[in-house]
Amino acid sequence: MGKLGADASMRCVHCGTPVAAVYVEYSPGNIRLSECAKCGFVADEYVECEIMIVVIDLILHKPEAYRHIFFNYPLLHKLKMLEFVWKTSLLVLLLDSCKLCLRGVGKTDVRWESLSLFLSTAGKVLAKVGLANVVFLITVLALAYALPNLGPHAKSKWTDLLMAVALSSYFKMFVFAMMVWEYSPLMTLIIDMLVLSSNTVALKVMLNTSTPIAATVIAAAAFFRTLCRISIDFVL
């Protein structure tokens, strides 16, 4: 009798149905991938793939790759996802802060001449970025719990939704490239659109809902985040 790969909280990457295991291990290095009882496909073929294959499929916005990362990968590798999500969230805030500073380079609102000006600028940047992202997350959470008939997994924990939004914001890593080359507003817009499209796929997977509903939730959250930024600019 083989050893099961993980437990019933794992999901089929194709249909999202909970599965008892994604593989059966008969001996070290000798495994057989399990099939989903509902759709008949292999529950998670990414088990045998290198992480770079998963990353490529994430960039291509394949829902199967998102399900693998959200539901199966943490259990297979015994990761402490909550701790990882908080660290990722801090990285997202840092990247947003850097992007905001890049937008302001050469303008009068970015002042670094003295420690007091540096602290004042840093405080404004962190306030704007932090509040804007909080508004975005609150909107996502509110709509996710308010909209009816989102699917059997709609009532996800708020930490799961935070994980979906944080991990699917990986396109913000391109901000590091913007620090090397000349700042381009067009590149910023492209990165923002890629992040929102990735957020949409992640929310679709986490809530097991349709793309239009997930896109509506993300679009509404982005709208309120923009309003928050405008309000902060007006106040500060």
List the helices and strands and how they pair.
Elements: E1 3-4, E2 10-11, E3 18-19, E4 23-27, E5 30-33, H1 51-59, H2 63-76, H3 81-104, H4 115-146, H5 158-167, H6 175-180, H7 185-207, H8 211-235
Antiparallel strand pairs: 1-4, 2-3, 4-5
Helix pairs in contact: 1-2, 2-7, 3-4, 3-5, 4-8, 5-7, 7-8
Tell the overall outline.
elongated
- How do the helices and strands follow one another from N- to C-terminus? EEEEEHHHHHHHH
Strand content: 5-15%
Report low-confidence residues grouped into runs of 5 or more: 1-6
The count of DSSP E runs of length 2 or more, i.e. the number of strands, is 5
Q: What is the typical, i.e. mean, pLDDT? A: 83
Radius of gyration computed on alpha carbons: 20 Å
Tell me about the biggest sheet? Answer: 3 strands, antiparallel
**Secondary structural class:** mainly alpha
Which strands sit side by side, in order, in the main sheet? 1-4-5
Helix content: 55-70%
